[in-house]
């Protein structure tokens, strides 16, 4: 009977099922000596029965009852006293089944849990051996021959200690089955028996002692849920819950980082909006809600009827399109400042006409006076000899039709060095105009090149 001081064989495996450590320790000391994340128990060969039954195709929730019905005729006692576990139904209808005494199994699970080794699985001894592709795997343990014959099948034979034969007792126990089934290979885990007979078509292979721990266990076991004790310190859901908690923490961290980035973008957007509103409406003293204040100012402008002053940009631009229709698609630069619109066109000749006129050469006295001219009385002018006519010179001036159109549109237009200057006639000054001449003699002062 298993108890806390029982010495049990153990093996510590890594995730690749490589053996890291083996030995024997009392059950009470094993949990402290060996760190574990999953505990899988291997039953003694005599503690369980492994066989195969055939059941019809049934839904999963009815398979357990069908297996119990197929197993019950094989039992000598009551099935309620047994723990029955089974695998999935194969294509040929076969189902691997194992059973063991219910009460000893529950007691063993409680003892393992109390020792700090809560069992995740309890498997029959044959299913713990390594699986070979074309043969069997054999292990001799405690007067039993344990054989794994397939992924979910295996057999156990007891060695007769009183057998009178020259062959090894283990070989003698296994030989009838070997002669009947004749597997392609038999892998014998050390120590190998003596007196192995020569079997036609069966290859004998030697396996290391550590191979007994490296079998791939099936997905089912005798550690049934109703036999498991209450696990106060460890739950089968602990690891999935830990992974879920970690994923939730990463998700929450990502949400917080994303919210922080959105907050920064919101602050930057509000600052840009406030700057744009302040630029568009400089008369607003403080910008608290850019969107609402901009909407209010827009609505106020709409309520004003959309009226503009004659010197505003939009009226000047619309009037310019009527004044210079030939400038369409020919504008190089456009500037507006303080009620004045300046245009630079691709062709300086647009809106200009050539005009021939005589320009007398300036007299030396006139050049010396730097723009000051002395006009004699009319009688003196009549007596003076007529000046020699100068040759005619050609120069460009604004088309009179444009000047007439500008007058009708209420605009004041000038052209200087290829730049058109357009402003409202109401706001245009009268600087640069010549005053009328006096009737008597005297000195009149004016600019040689008047600027507008």
TrEMBL record:
It holds the Pfam family GspL_C. Residues 232-345 form the GspL periplasmic domain. GO terms for biological process: protein secretion by the type II secretion system. Residues 20-154 form the GspL cytoplasmic actin-ATPase-like domain. Keywords: Cell inner membrane, Cell membrane, Membrane, Protein transport, Transmembrane, Transmembrane helix, Transport. It is found in: Cell inner membrane. GO terms for cellular component: Gram-negative-bacterium-type cell wall; plasma membrane; type II protein secretion system complex. Its main location: membrane. Gene3D superfamilies: 3.30.420.380. Residues 425-452 are annotated as: Disordered. InterPro entries: ATPase_NBD, GspL_cyto_dom, GspL_pp_dom, T2SS_protein-GspL. It is a single-pass membrane protein. Belongs to the GSP L family. This is General secretion pathway protein L.
